Amino acid sequence: MSRPHICVKLARAATSDAIKSKLATHYSTATSKALVVPLRDSKAVAEVYWFKELPAALRTWVWELFEQNMKAHYEVSHDGWDPEEKRKELFDRESRFIVLRADRSSPPLGYTIFRFDTEETKDVEEADVVYLYELQVEASAQGKGIGRLLMELLQHVSKDWRMDKTMLTVFKKNEQAVRFYEKLGWVTDEIDPSFYGRKHADYRILSKPCE
């Protein structure tokens, strides 16, 4: 008998302010008005949105940055480039967004898109997870710790809402991304296709436990 996944149900019902409030407990720089987080020798401001709250301008930016960074990878993938399908995935009603800016009035630098969900395991029970759908950073902001900070925030979300682990899918040919995730301690997940006779799949499933 599978467990009821109460943690996922509670997390899915959480407001963006509730998620932000929990994140604020990890940073002494956070205030009631802004989630200010350390970024190397500087600071950044993190914004949290549910899909239904995402401003139109940010929605446009999210898609354009995704297309700019990822279209070429999808074009050579097994499934190809299907913008309509990708829009549905990114802007699903369960999608959550974390956006980073240098300050509250500056242009956005990068974002994550994630959902609270359940995933299969090699055992009978499913795992409660935060599944990372996208991590995208502006070209001009890459190499400055933005991606690492977004992943740190994501891992805090997973722990705050008592998930079992955080998961993501990455193209094998996107070697820069694979190296980045592995450097942060992500490993091949137990449901990766390579464990089920699908070594030629063009993607990997990685995960990181919530410890």
Description:
The protein is built from 6 helices and 8 strands. It has 211 residues and is of the alpha+beta class. β3 and β4 form a beta hairpin. The protein has a domain at 6-115 and 130-162: 3-Layer(aba) Sandwich (Aminopeptidase), CATH 3.40.630. The longest helix is centred in the first third of the chain and has 20 residues, at 56-75. The chain has helices at residues 6-13, 16-24, 56-75, 83-90, 146-160, 175-183, and strands spanning 35-39, 42-50, 96-101, 108-119, 127-137, 165-171, 187-188, 203-209. It starts with 5 loop residues before the first helix and ends with a strand.
Topology:
Elements: H1 6-13, H2 16-24, E1 35-39, E2 42-50, H3 56-75, H4 83-90, E3 96-101, E4 108-119, E5 127-137, H5 146-160, E6 165-171, H6 175-183, E7 187-188, E8 203-209
Parallel strand pairs: 5-6
Antiparallel strand pairs: 1-2, 2-3, 3-4, 4-5, 6-8, 7-8
Domain N-acetyltransferase: 60-209
EC number: 2.3.1.257
Keywords: Acyltransferase, Cytoplasm, Nucleus, Transferase
